[in-house]
Amino acid sequence: MKTRTALTALILTAGLAFGASTFAQPSTTAPAGKTGTTAAQPGSDKGKKEEKKMETKGVKVGDVAPSFSLMDTDGKTVTLESFKGKVVVLEWFNAECPFIVKHHSVNHTFNDLYDQFHSKNVEFLAITSSAKGNEGFGKELNTAKKAEYKMQYPILLDESGATGHAYGATNTPHCFVIGTDGKIAYAGAIDNNTDMKKPGDKNYVKMALDNVLAGKAADPSYVKPYGCPVKYSH
Amino acid sequence: MASSLALSAAAAAGGASLLPAKPHVSAKIIGEFTSAVPGSTVTLALDFTIEKKWHIYSTSRNDNGFPPKAVWELPAGFTVDAIQWPTPVRHVDPGDLLNHVYFDHVSLPVLLHVPSSAQPGSTSTIKAKLSWLVCDTSCVGEDAEVEFKLAIAKPGDSPSKSSDAKQIDEARTRLPHELAKDSKDISISWTATAVEVSVTDASRLIFHPDEDCVPFAAPIKDADVEGKKMTIKLGDPEEGHTALAGVLEIHRVSAKAGKSAEFVRIHSAPAAGPAKAEPAKPSKSP
């Protein structure tokens, strides 16, 4: 463990333990979300309530983006198909999660992205997979939050969690960039700072969009997402 | 909240009326001894009391969340080592989200080096700005500024244990130790698709992977098993993450000793690698 002296006050940061390497910069590379195949082997049954027989499946970069048809806060049905030929950014969303607050209220990360890219054939959709009774659930709450956060794009209500599971969304925010070919171009974190207030100096969705719009592959194409657990139903 | 005192750090900062809600975690710094002599090393701990059902996160691999962060402010000449993390517990959220967390209470030991220039009879104030994410069915970011007053004793004095020493001792019982090089009861073997961990006399095995551990295909199912053998199927390769790295929690039941648990730090690379701390093939013992 190295300590670092700053000023005369000797402010020591707990460097490695709170490691830049472990969470300030999420790992970049490889697989999208939880890509494990279905667990085939029946394990010993421990009788624990959390024990599940299947692991979460999700999409990998390069996979065709799963289709969906979800209601937005205005009661309008929105399908992925309706954006055919466009680049689409999906943002897994929970209005009350501190990391969503970080990027929608403390900072305006997503609104800035929208302003920068919407005119360039890029559509944005927020999706909440919060189940009934869970944080971030509901048409009323999300209608109010959409106004409060001045969001210019819809919040889709995925109450059953089916769309979240299809994508393997684990965190809020958890971002997916879908190319004009309908395939996942980028999956993962919004940026490189897991702090609850400060944004990073690398916005991975912006980087992915810049590349995709220039006809290039996103680089990185996957960064481990950070945030709150998606509030799926039990 | 277990302790009203513990609330003070957060509450004092801005006045209760400014707080959005009552904090779910109270934090303080505790010390093993009531004083320290110049030039010595003493154990402090960041001590978190967590509201029932809520949890904070460890440094093990998590699908969500982060461990608490600390920024120390120390008197001249004092230094601290890395925070030590007791082995967490596995927690699965709906949607098969696996996290390694602490419930109820945890003390995170930290070694403090007292400079030989510290003045006997004086008091040194150790401060830290802490922030953490705490979750139950929702998540909240909280922070606190905490401090600990350390009395400097005369060289040659024998500081006595503080009333908080037992919390630190309890934390130590869940700190992992390194795997002995000549360990015969733990063996790790690799195939192209899985890593197998065996412990001769285990009744249950749990593996808590580090962030940079090789990816697991089905960690919820594979990394917590009854019995003496654990077969962890490997997930999609991730650059730079090739070794089995983390803490192996071994439970044993014996007629003599009853139930016991051991926490062993593992770093085992597949055959090509150096296999640090990995015992060679099960040795032929006499």
Summarize the structure in short.
Chain A is α/β, with parallel strands linked by helices and 234 residues long.
Write the layout of secondary structure elements.
The complex is a heterodimer of chains A (234) and B (286).
Chain A: E1 11-13, H1 20-24, E2 69-72, E3 77-79, E4 87-92, H2 98-106, H3 109-117, E5 122-128, H4 139-148, E6 155-157, H5 162-167, E7 171-172, E8 175-178, E9 184-188, H6 204-213, E10 222-223, E11 228-229
Chain B: H1 4-14, E1 25-31, E2 35-36, E3 41-50, E4 55-57, E5 69-73, E6 79-80, E7 89-93, E8 97-103, E9 105-113, E10 123-135, E11 139-152, H2 165-172, E12 177-178, E13 186-190, E14 194-199, E15 204-209, H3 219-222, E16 224-226, E17 229-233, E18 244-254, E19 258-268
Describe this structure in words.
- The complex is a heterodimer of chains A (234) and B (286).
- Chain A is globular and about 40 Å long.
- The longest helix of chain A has 10 residues.
- An eight-stranded mixed β-sheet of chain A has the order 3-2-6-5-4-8-9-10, covered by helices on one side. Chain A has a two-stranded antiparallel sheet with strand order 7-11.
- Helices cover 21% and strands 18% of the residues of chain A.
- Chain A has 234 residues and is an alpha/beta fold.
- Chain B is mostly beta strands and 286 residues long.
- In chain B, the strands form four sheets. In chain B, strands 2, 4, 5, 7, 8, 10 and 11 form a seven-stranded mixed β-sheet that branches.
- In chain B, a hairpin with a 3-residue loop joins strand 13 and strand 14.
- The radius of gyration of chain B is 21 Å and the shape is globular.
- The N terminus and C terminus of chain B are likely disordered.
- Strand 1 of chain A pairs antiparallel with strand 5 of chain B, so a sheet runs across the interface.
